[in-house]
Amino acid sequence: MEKILLKLCVNGETCQVAVPPNKLLLDVLREDLGLTGSKRGCDDSSCGCCAVLIDGTPMLSCVALAASYAGAEITTVEGLAPPGELHPVQEGFAVSGGAQCGYCTPGFLIATKALLDRNPQPTLEEIREALSSNLCRCTGYMQIYESVRLALERWQQVPRTAAASPTAAQGSQ
Amino acid sequence: MTLPAFSLVRPQTVAEALRVLQDAAPGQAKVIAGGTDLIPNLQMKLYAPQLVVDIKGIAALRGIEWSPGQGLRIGALTTLTELERAPIVREQFPVLAEAVAAVAGPLQRNMGTIGGNLCLETRCLWYNQSEFWRRALGGCLKLPMPNPHAAHPRTICHVAPGGKFCWAVWSGDSAPALLALDAEVEISGPRGVTRRPLRELYKNDGMDRLALGHDELLTAVHIPARAAGRRGTYRKLRIRNSIDYPLAGVAVAMEVDDQGICHAARVAIAAVNPAPLLVPQAEALLVGQKASPELIEEVARAVTRTGKPLTTSASTPEYRREMLRVFTRRALQACWDRRDNVEHERDTGD
Ligand SMILES: Cc1cc2nc3c(=O)[nH]c(=O)nc-3n(C[C@H](O)[C@H](O)[C@H](O)COP(=O)(O)OP(=O)(O)OC[C@H]3O[C@@H](n4cnc5c(N)ncnc54)[C@H](O)[C@@H]3O)c2cc1C
Ligand code: FES
Ligand code: FES
Asked: The pTM is what?
């Protein structure tokens, strides 16, 4: 199939890829850019494992044609914090056992980051609602909600501007 | 996972999109908005278009405008999240706010658009399956896959064997709410821009769901100003309350005065027929009346006469029909009891 040349802006870096027009953003991230943090967890766009931020909004990279998002700011789980550091949301999950097998975790981290950017004081009900596109087969969700609560505490200790900016993680590929 | 091969175009104006659609052979081009319905369907190889037309770059199709004279205009690319959060929608059109908030999960709603929601493909247990699964069965009326070794070598409808009609179900949530608000759709095509009642968009045929030409686009939805402020609510049955498509849906919008007398009423249902449908008798039964258990029961019976659930989904027709009745009762009572349009907890049938 013909390929098209795309400029994608991922985790603050612009990269060029040549991909067929039917290639999904999820597959471009994983196969062409080596960013395997985003996962494919289902066949019918119902699991949330592939979530990324597109211009700050959490979306499913498995229903996005890569070519449709040329020019948009894409943030994957790899871009949440600079290499070697953890974003407060990642710390929350690490400390509270929010991950067991870990397959769903990147999607939960992305959805949680987006929630806290929009609503820094969510209630438990708001957390459950914001994470309801994300499925987890291991944790039973309680540790995840606990992780978000802990992330919230840590979040409030970091200067908002640095942590809230999608480009906080420069050069993290 | 690979999708079938296609070329992609990204028009930036409605005129450009219409030109592309007009030049394509009928059935060869598919429009993509949020992609939350189209991409999973492509993944299952339900279609093989040569061309996909991505309309997301058309800025003129975005946004919500309200004027007390003209009513509410919703651009086709407005996302369900934008609608659900818009103060004008929450305050003046609560049935719509509830219905869009009940679609899928938040990540799907961040991508899914109102245009895509109104043009959704119909769904059926025997159709929304992988290519492998469908081939083993021999396909169905909607998508035949002739296979001499299949369980059914002759293509048949598995819902109504012997029938020639496809019962695949209308499974969108915003359409019944918009029907209850007397909405109209704006259609742009080679003959210009026209507006028609939303109910005329649906053909009630699982195979051929929309009265929309291959060279036409749905460009906006209009809700007349007279529907603003109607009390309303949407009730929905689904397997997982966090994410699934509806198995039955009931939307009610009503005007009720201080004495509790109903002055306007619409009841619309989804997920039990190949189209979202207004219940024709509901208005005549309700207007001029005060709430009574007998009246509510009579409307609920009218609703179950309009809804025709069959074996198209994971839940039984009997249960879905019974839930239509239960949801109608609860929705009418809630509208009558409510003094203002305060939001209430989601009714999930439990
Ligand atoms: C896991 C999951 C659960 C879901 N649950 C629900 C649910 O509970 N309720 C529900 O209603 N939906 C549900 N959906 C479907 C979907 O998310 C929404 O209906 C969404 O609003 C579809 O909009 P879209 O922009 O993504 O559509 P797209 O996939 O882009 O398009 C859908 C169809 O409409 C056509 N189309 C789109 N825009 C236009 C236009 N402007 N003019 C003409 N044709 C157009 C496309 O060609 C396509 O055939 C679910 C989807 C998933 C993946
Ligand atoms: S891979 Fe399951 S939602 Fe995207
Ligand atoms: S930790 Fe295993 S799926 Fe969530």
From this structure: 0.94
